[in-house]
């Protein structure tokens, strides 16, 4: 029997980690990306082409047994075109929905999942009306193609509306705009979950996340939350997955305000806040995504102790301190350094909270990253 080839649209670090985790299953990969430099290409054959180029897509479809994504902004029509030729997971309908913040929030509301106040903003007049209704502070975001805080403008008072429109108004007719009430949350949480082809649903424990300038900086798992909040988050994730007929791993990002969960967005792919599962769980999100899309039994999502993931943005720090710490694991994505770019991460694991807090504080100090680890250490040491 010839080996199964998994095709991945998008060749960044997520595709790279998928390929690495698929090797023990004997899988082959083909990665498609618009750049010949895509870092997954260091581990898997890389097909360079535009996602809208039918000849390139046809070549891709011809060579793979199943296709999936490492980023959500693959054109929905390309995903659909591909799905007519080869099994594609998650399904193109789910992908299309998560590409539009307005459609996504509308679905959450339909499923009785609380969301921040929001309004569609097709025109400048609509923006004025939305700001008057929702109030300030609020955030104007592009409906499509935004990520990691890009395509967002914070409106602190009505005096900022002109500046917000100057910054994003030109995109109202192309990618669309949405206004959201600003949520004064105490915590950001995410559910990373997986649903198999047979409908089986499994989730890793809730993760708490800290962002800097809209980009994930640190994650802690399991999040230190009470059982009822945990159960609510899981039931939201499950409801969404079932409604979408979702297959594969996804992340549901949530704000926690005064004990209430509000859904922010759904990422239809393996997720940065699930990287800790590589060492911190019995089965990683990458392995379970592959099992799901291939129709294999899903792996156990139980945690191994407590884990903290730290993102490396712009350039890699010196690995020595992390590598010489018990429970320290290093991931260098093999990318060129560039301001704002996710170039790697580390996961630090321990069997219990205080041991992790101590290791984190020590490594943070050695790396000069005290500010990055401080909120995680503080959370671990809360009574
Ligand atoms: P997003 O691209 O929507 O995930 O936004 C990136 C980050 O901006 C989030 O993780 C939050 O830290 C912050 N953010 C986004 N939307 C809101 C909101 N409605 N209220 C408060 N903070 C937000």
Describe the protein:
The chain has 383 residues and is of the alpha+beta class. It has 3 domains: 5-88, Rossmann fold (3-Layer(aba) Sandwich); 117-181, Dna Ligase, domain 1 (2-Layer Sandwich), CATH 3.30.1490.20; 187-380, D-amino Acid Aminotransferase, Chain A, domain 1 (2-Layer Sandwich), CATH 3.30.470.20. 33% of the residues lie in helices and 26% in strands. The chain has helices spanning 13-22, 54-63, 76-83, 92-98, 101-110, 124-134, 161-168, 227-244, 277-280, 285-294, 320-323, 353-367, 370-381, and strands at residues 5-9, 28-33, 46-48, 66-69, 118-120, 138-142, 152-155, 177-181, 187-195, 201-203, 207-212, 215-221, 248-257, 260-267, 306-313, 328-332, 342-350. Strands 9, 10, 11, 12, 13, 14, 15, 16 and 17 form a 9-stranded antiparallel β-sheet that branches. A 4-stranded parallel β-sheet has the order 3-2-1-4, sandwiched between helices. A hairpin with a 5-residue loop joins strand 9 (187-195) and strand 10. It is globular and about 60 Å long. The mean pLDDT is 96. The structure holds adenosine monophosphate. The site of adenosine monophosphate has 13 residues, from strand 14.
């Amino acid at each position: 029997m010839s080996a199964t080839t998994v095709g991945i649209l998008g060749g960044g670090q997520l595709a790279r980690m998928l390929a690495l985790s698929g090797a023990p299953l004997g899988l082959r990969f083909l990665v498609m990306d618009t750049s010949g430099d895509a870092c997954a290409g260091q581990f898997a054959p890389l097909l360079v082409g535009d996602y809208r180029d039918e000849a390139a897509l046809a070549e891709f479809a011809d060579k793979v047994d199943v296709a999936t994504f490492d980023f959500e902004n693959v054109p929905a029509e390309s995903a659909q075109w591909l799905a007519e030729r080869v099994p594609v997971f998650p399904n193109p309908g789910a992908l299309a929905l998560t590409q539009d913040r307005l459609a996504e929030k509308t679905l959450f509301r339909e499923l009785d999942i609380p969301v921040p106040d929001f309004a569609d903003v097709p025109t400048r007049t609509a923006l004025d009306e939305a700001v008057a209704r929702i109030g300030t502070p609020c955030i104007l975001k592009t409906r499509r193609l935004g990520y990691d805080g890009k395509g967002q403008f914070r409106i602190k008072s009505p005096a900022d509306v002109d500046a917000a429109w100057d910054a994003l108004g030109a995109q109202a007719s192309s990618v669309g705009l949405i206004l959201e009430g600003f949520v004064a949350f105490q915590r950001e949480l995410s559910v990373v979950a997986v649903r198999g082809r047979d409908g089986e649903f499994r989730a890793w424990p809730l993760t708490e996340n800290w962002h800097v300038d809209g980009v994930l900086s640190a994650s802690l798992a399991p999040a230190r939350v009470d059982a009822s909040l945990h159960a609510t988050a899981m039931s939201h994730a499950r409801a969404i997955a079932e409604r979408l007929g979702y297959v594969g791993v996804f992340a549901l990002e949530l704000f926690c305000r005064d004990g209430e969960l509000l859904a922010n967005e759904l990422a239809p792919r393996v997720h940065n806040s699930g990287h800790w599962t590589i060492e911190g769980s019995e089965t990683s999100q990458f392995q379970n995504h592959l099992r799901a899309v291939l129709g294999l039994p899903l792996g156990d999502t139980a945690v191994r102790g407590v884990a903290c993931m730290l993102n490396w943005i712009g350039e890699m720090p010196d690995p020595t301190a992390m590598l010489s710490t018990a429970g320290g694991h290093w991931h260098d994505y093999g990318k060129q350094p560039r301001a704002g770019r996710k170039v790697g991460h580390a996961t630090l694991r321990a069997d219990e909270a205080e041991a992790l807090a101590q290791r984190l504080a020590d490594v943070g100090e050695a790396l000069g990253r005290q500010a990055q680890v401080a909120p995680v250490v503080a959370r671990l040491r809360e009574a």
